[in-house]
Amino acid sequence: MNSRQENLFRQLKTYREELLHTLENVTDHEAEWIPENFRNNIRWQIGHLYLDQYLWIETLTKENIEIPECIRKSFGFGTSPESFDEETPTYSELKELLKKQPDLILKQYSNCLDKEFPPTEMGMQTIEQVLIRTIFHEGMHLQAINDIKKSIHNSKTAPQV
């Protein structure tokens, strides 16, 4: 790995740690709450982030990444907490998956970050480019999580903080 790629993984881990830090004081009950004018809850946000990173790698490489079907059906694009069932991972399980994911991606893909594949519909041709996109995507959802947390804090109908 070259220094640019090492920096990319440092950023991936740093931003993931920031996300996990944001989740530290969120209870299981709060993670399930959908504030007024929101479509999803914190549990959905983090499950979606976990899945999205793998889906983009899968889209690019055409490899089949082992992602449990319950994660695909609960957290894919266009889903909502309404699609949750007894197989959907819990908030705690999702946090643990998120914690491990950057190291798993590093282990599996560090030697092929700049290998070129046919471009995705967004023009990405390397795993490095995909990871840059997913870091941006994670930042968008981190803001949504912060907005939900603010709603929890400000709402009289929210779960007790």
Structure description:
The protein is mainly α. It has one domain: Four Helix Bundle (Hemerythrin (Met), subunit A), CATH 1.20.120.450. 62% of the residues lie in helices and 0% in strands. It is built from 6 helices and no strands. InterPro entries: DinB-like (IPR024775), DinB/YfiT-like (IPR034660). This is DinB family protein. It comes from Bacillus mesophilum.
- CATH top level assignment: Mainly Alpha
Low-confidence stretches: none
Class inferred from helices and paired strands? mainly alpha
The fourth-level CATH homologous superfamily is dinb family like domain
Q: Biggest β-sheet: count, sense, barrel?
A: none
Q: Enter the CATH topology name.
A: Four Helix Bundle (Hemerythrin (Met), subunit A)
In terms of DSSP E residues, the strand content is: under 5%
| Morphology | globular
Q: Domain count, please report it.
A: 1
What is the residue-mean pLDDT, rounded to a whole number? 94
Helix percent reads: 55-70%
CATH architecture: Up-down Bundle
Number of strands: 0
Q: Quaternary state, please?
A: single chain
Taking Cα atoms only, what radius of gyration do you get, to the nearest Å? 16 Å
Element-by-element helix/strand order = HHHHHH
Instruction: Work out the helix count.
Output: 6
Q: Note the gap between the termini.
A: 44 Å
Protein name: DinB family protein
InterPro entries: DinB-like, DinB/YfiT-like
Organism: Bacillus mesophilum
Domain DinB-like: 11-145
